[in-house]
Design goal:
The structure holds 3 protein chains of 3 kinds. Chain B is of the alpha+beta class. Chain B has a single domain, classed as Arc Repressor Mutant, subunit A, CATH 1.10.10. Chain B has 4 helices and 5 strands, in the order E-E-E-H-H-H-E-H-E. In chain B, helix 1 packs across helix 3. The N and C termini of chain B lie far apart (56 Å). In chain C, strand 17 and strand 18 form a beta hairpin. The longest helix of chain C has 18 residues. Chain C starts with a strand and ends with a strand. The chains are: A alpha/beta, B alpha+beta, C alpha/beta. Chains in contact: A-B, A-C, B-C.
């Protein structure tokens, strides 16, 4: 029976961050082992609406988003040999009220400063871009270089490519704790025995905090509940990624033709839900009302399923991507706060550089450090 | 479960063009290739190919897809996990969904 | 939100029975069904059921459905039709699509009784129109009154395939063949025999490899399979059919249980993914139960008992039954279920094909398993099938241990004995006199009882058999007597026809045949 207990690098978490980073590291000749508790991409990686968005991002993570859009996404299908269904159809972030417009204008101003091409447009201009939209929309921000992709294909595409480059994956293994040996990270204690490596990347979504805690590392990250509905396939209507200013409604029409639309009932922060991913009975109706408000033409389209997931919400809604100096050999990438998918291909480059070169040189991630939550000096 | 790349080349079969998931028109060959590409569970194949994501949500094809995966991997279908049952278990129009009656009149 | 003590999902045999039991015990129960009429699959079942009196044996399925509905109505059970349960959420909340809206209900307990869906097998062209499920064929014939096709290939020789094939013949269709990849007929031998004697050929160890046609089926190619169920090249045979009917088993429709986060497992003997259940039918989520086919594929008779059994547990937990009351009800239901779950076709024996003799020690007919009929030589090993006596007397060609005993109750003179264990083969009491009334002939759900009189006339015998086809023969009609594989063996003349209400549309027809064919002649075909 095949077994592998040791590698140069162990990656904890078989989501898109883990799979993509495994691929980058393997490409640079590193021997990588990925540990995953359930199946590949079972967490937020396959439970998101597929936005590849730069607009309305915090300037601190905008470099990741812009790098991904400019340098990775357009060629990713070819690079991976799997069609990740990337569409650069632009992003409309919709506003219905004056308050919404203020939020959008604020984001637009900040992003423009960093060189992102994004502008405020009127409701009518938005309807020219997407004729199916109702009169409710009075203004929008428009970022033509934004888009969307298929998160399932992208995650499994990275996984497949990593496998091809010699990465070993072990699934069905739950990580219980990390242990240092002689001052450096070394051991991964699991429900299936001990695995060892010189370097460890922790990118296990909301479970990262529990695992990090076992070596005295902590970041203010909590899990957040998130729900999406999927419709039956429709003829192609638009290629635009949509969202509303407050983020309570978002989605796109997938290449397959189905609409993938997320939203919330306002109750999810307080859900009593367990790990079984049961949806809330009020959320799909809320999303449906949102759809009818913005896209009344879709009212007779059938919903075929709803699903939910947990994402790793960080206190400042930004990820922690860093080498942990207190625990040499440990690198973390978590806290993506529900918008990690679009930047994941860039994150994998930054993380692989962090791990192999000691710092991220290609992309500026200096604002996403671990010590931002801790006492200085 | 340990997973490494399959060193052997993918071998096509005569009946690879047979449709297995009717809703999403996924063929036997696509499922076999997905397994070859590293998909090891019912859900991974579903996410990779959309088998079981159509109107019937896998009621018809899950058994068939699992049979193919199991035979490719030489395991029992019961080891492959299953497609999670998701609301609505029957397709429902957005219009209907939006009419959400929580207070039912007493009759 | 409206709250009920019990929400039952599905108004089929299991769900209705559960609701009846709960209501009888005093519970506040509501039943939802997505269809426009209740009864589930029962209303498609025009054949007589097996079992004993308490299982409604020898009653046709749709009549059992009517009785169940009446019982529910008389008790005032609330059944909401056209009401699709969309999901089960936390705290036993369900959403239901009704009148174009989503309604929310909550239950103290939920019984999932959503039944099963038909299995499909893939082959070249399996997705072109004309390839249909056996259940769909039943709906077309028995609910909508439409023939599913004119020439039909039945794929699958389990009870569903056999019963539906017979119904197709009754509906005036031609059944070109019944095939099965297994080397043995999967369903009851008596169901196979009543088809074989009409001339329907059986091809065991055969599979369908192609549906011919582009926009609809214009033919079917079948081929013999090897021991690994792979088609053997060169054995292909093309059949002239316009419809391919698939009857290769059922899969529990268990998505709601999975949606409700019940622990699930793929259990092949139960037909697919099912919720793991306690002995009382409760899932891993407290207060959520499964009953009927969704809990594991069986049949309507056991589904009805399971429904009642599960509902009695719910009633006890809700305080409507004491523990003692529950225990005694539960024991009764378990006994009734136990009777149905005995014999060679018991759920625990699913997939077994190593029976070589009956419980009584008689050798099981190999021809029956391979071709759907028995040879006279094989029948001679069974006393009731080879019984001979001067004057009219029954001949019972029932040769497998199946749970059924209406023949015993049918004979008012005690000629036929099954005994306590209803899977025993019926035996004939030679001391008792047969009057030739024919009630046993009509009562046998397997149509396996005949009356024979070797001394009917000088040189002639009479053979009395059950007949459920139109047009009904008339006295004086002349035609051919067919043997057990449907081959004409001699001339025959119709000399008697009995149709009484108690026979429930099974005519008891008597034909006169030359004496030497008395043991061969078992069916009749009019001269055309």
């Amino acid at each position: 029976m095949l077994e592998k207990r040791e590698a140069d690098v162990i990656i904890i978490g078989g989501g898109i961050m883990g799979c993509a980073t495994a691929y980058r590291l393997a490409k640079r000749g590193v021997d990588v082992l990925v540990l995953e508790k359930k199946e590949i991409g079972n967490g937020g990686s396959c439970r998101n609406a597929g936005g590849v968005r730069q607009s309305a991002r915090d300037p601190k993570e905008l470099p990741l988003a812009m790098y991904a859009v400019q340098n990775i996404w357009p060629q990713l299908s070819e690079e991976l040999g799997v069609d990740v269904e990337y569409h650069q159809g632009g992003n409309l972030r919709l506003g219905l009220t004056d308050k919404d417009i203020k939020v959008l204008e604020n984001h637009t101003a900040k992003s423009t400063k960093l060189g992102l091409e994004v502008e405020m447009i009127s409701g009518d201009e938005a309807r020219k871009l997407c004729p199916y939209m109702s009169e409710e929309v009075v203004a929008a921000s428009w970022c033509p270089s934004d888009g969307h992709a298929n998160p399932l294909k992208a995650t499994l595409g990275f996984y497949r490519k990593a496998l091809q480059l010699g990465v070993t994956f072990v699934t069905g293994v739950k990580v219980m704790a990390l242990e240092k040996v002689k001052g450096r990270i070394r051991k991964v204690i699991t429900d299936d025995g001990v695995y060892e490596a010189d370097q460890i990347l922790l990118c296990a979504g909301y479970e990262s905090r529990r695992i990090a805690n076992t070596v005295g590392i902590d970041a203010p990250v909590e899990r957040q509940f998130n729900e999406v509905l999927v419709t039956e396939a429709q003829p192609k209507m638009f290629d635009i990624m949509l969202g509303v200013a407050g983020g309570e409604f978002y989605g796109h029409q997938s290449e397959h033709g189905s609409f993938v639309l997320g939203g919330n009932s306002g109750l999810q922060a307080f859900t009593s839900n367990n790990d079984n991913f049961v949806t809330n009975s009020l959320t799909a109706p809320c999303i449906s009302r949102g759809i009818i408000k913005y896209f009344p033409i879709l009212e007779n389209v059938k919903v075929v399923r709803t699903w939910s997931g947990w994402y790793d919400q960080c206190i400042d809604v930004l990820p922690v991507i860093d080498n942990i100096k207190e625990v040499p050999g440990l690198t973390v990438a978590f806290g993506f706060s529900g918008h990690g998918f679009g930047i994941s291909p860039a994150v994998s480059i930054a993380v692989s550089e962090l791990m192999l070169d000691g710092k991220s040189t290609t992309i500026d991630i200096s604002q996403l450090t671990y010590d931002r939550f801790h006492a200085k000096g | 479960m340990i997973r490494v790349a399959n060193p052997e080349p993918f071998v096509e079969r005569e009946d690879d063009d047979m449709i297995i998931c009717r809703c999403e028109e996924i063929t036997k060959g696509e499922i076999r290739r997905a397994v070859y590409d590293g998909m090891r569970t019912t859900n991974e194949v579903k996410r990779y190919l959309r088998s079981g994501m159509g109107l019937c949500q896998g009621q018809t094809c899950q058994r068939l897809v699992q049979g193919i995966i199991a035979s490719e991997l030489k395991v029992r279908p019961s080891e492959l996990g299953m497609i999670q049952g998701r609301a609505p278990v029957r397709p429902v129009e957005i219009r209907t969904f939006s009419k959400n009656v929580t207070d039912v009149k007493e009759d | 939100m409206k709250r009920h003590e019990l929400i039952v999902i599905g108004a089929g045999p299991a769900g209705l029975s559960a609701a009846i039991e709960a209501k009888k015990n005093g519970m506040d129960v509501i039943v939802f069904d997505e269809n426009q009429r209740p009864g589930g699959q029962l209303f498609k079942q025009i054949h007589k059921f097996f079992g004993s009196k308490e299982h409604h044996a020898k009653t046709r399925g749709f009549i059992i459905g009517q009785q169940l509905l009446k019982e529910a109505e008389d008790l005032g059970v609330r059944v909401e039709l056209d009401s699709t349960v969309m999901g089960i959420y936390e705290n036993k909340e369900v959403t239901v699509k009704q009148n174009g809206e989503v309604h929310h209900y909550k239950g103290d307990a939920i019984i999932i009784a959503t039944g099963a869906a038909e299995n499909m097998i893939p082959f070249k062209g399996w997705n072109i129109p004309g390839v249909i499920g056996a259940g769909a064929a039943q709906t077309m014939m028995n609910i909508q009154g439409v023939q599913p096709g004119s020439k039909i290939l039945m794929v699958g020789s389990g009870n569903v395939g056999l019963v539906v094939s017979f119904q197709l013949l009754q509906a005036g269709c031609e059944v070109a063949a019944i095939i099965d990849a297994a080397p043995r007929v999967g369903g009851y031998g008596v169901h196979a025999a009543k088809l074989a004697r009409t001339g329907v050929p059986f091809y065991l160890s055969h599979t369908v490899v192609e549906a011919k046609g582009t926009d609809r089926v214009t033919g079917a190619v079948i081929a013999q399979v090897d021991e690994h169920f792979q088609p053997i090249p060169g054995t292909e045979k093309e059949l002239d059919v316009d419809t391919i009917c698939i009857a290769v088993g059922l899969t529990p429709m268990s998505q709601l249980a999975s949606n409700a986060t019940c622990d699930m497992e793929l259990i092949p003997q139960k037909g697919g993914h099912v919720a793991l259940l306690s002995e009382y039918g409760e899932t891993s989520v407290e207060g959520i139960y499964c009953a009927g086919d969704v809990a594991g594929i069986e049949e309507a008779s056991s589904a009805m008992i399971q429904g009642r059994s599960v509902a009695s547990h719910v009633s006890m937990k809700a305080g409507y039954l004491t523990e003692d009351e529950f225990e005694s009800k539960y024991q009764g239901y378990q006994e009734a279920l136990g009777q149905l779950r005995q014999g060679m076709f018991a759920p625990k024996n699913k997939g077994r094909n190593d029976f070589t003799e009956t419980d009584e020690g008689y050798p099981i007919s190999k021809t029956l398993l391979a071709h759907g009929y028995m040879t006279e030589e094989e029948l001679s090993k069974f006393p009731a099938a080879s019984y001979q006596k001067a004057g009219i007397h029954p001949v019972i060609e029932c040769t497998q241990n199946i749970p059924c005993n209406p023949c015993q109750d049918a004979c008012h003179f005690g000629c036929i004995k099954v005994g306590e264990n209803i899977t025993r083969l019926p035996a004939i009491d030679e001391e008792k006199k047969c009057t030739g009334c024919g009630l046993c002939v009509a009562s046998c759900s397997g149509q396996a009882i005949f009356l024979v009189d070797e001394t009917y006339e000088e040189g002639f015998a009479s053979v009395t058999f059950p007949y459920e086809f139109l047009p009904m023969p008339k006295i004086g009609d002349k035609g051919k007597a067919l043997d057990r594989q449907g081959k004409p063996v001699c001339d025959a003349e119709i000399v008697g026809i009995k149709k009484t209400p108690i026979m429930d549309k099974t005519a008891v027809v008597t034909m006169k045949v030359p004496l030497e064919y008395v043991h061969a002649a078992r069916f009749y075909r009019a001269e055309v």
